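Hey,

The postdoc asked me to send both predictions to you directly instead of through the lab channel. I've kept everything plain text so nothing gets mangled by the mail client. Protein one:
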Amino acid sequence: YKDKIIVGYSGGDNMTEAYFPTVFMIFDLEGNYIKTLDVGYKIQDFCIDKDNHRIIMALVDEIQFAYLDLQQLI
């Protein structure tokens, strides 16, 4: 997204449900850490909506779909 690298991170065991990330880590293009965004839900998949400046997520929870407005966060 623009001049940032956005990755989902869990740190959990990939053989359990702890594998699903619950945070996004943001880096600049040189790999320098900028910030962590804690979603609070298990993220199954996500994509960047460049036109609307947001991350669209499929979640593993009662809430199945969500988005984050990137203009307000980074």
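Protein two:
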Amino acid sequence: LKQRGQRKHYLVLFPKIEWLSRYGIIYPNILQRLFRQFWPGNLTILLSDKKKYFSHLTFSNKIGIRIPESKLLRDFISYIEEPIVSTSINVSGEAPLKDLKQIIKEKGSWFDFGISDN
């Protein structure tokens, strides 16, 4: 769908930092300050997938991690009790779509459901 190269990472969304260790995601303690400053938010950080829980999504045992800015999305992830694999809604190299109506119109066949807090 995205026509992306195999070396392009997907990202995994978590509701809070404490979930990372549950899934074997390791990071140096020095990153705690960075996490607190930019999460929740749009910052994606590549971290080691030590337990290889996400090995089917990684390249060189690294996985893109984000704590999303949307409280609705964080609450949803907490409710389903599983992190969510995510990507932007666009063909690789094109600008991502941001308007929900346009996303449904142009890319509705790409997904089963969407969440919007707009």
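Summary for protein two, as requested: The mean pLDDT is 82.

Thanks,
C.
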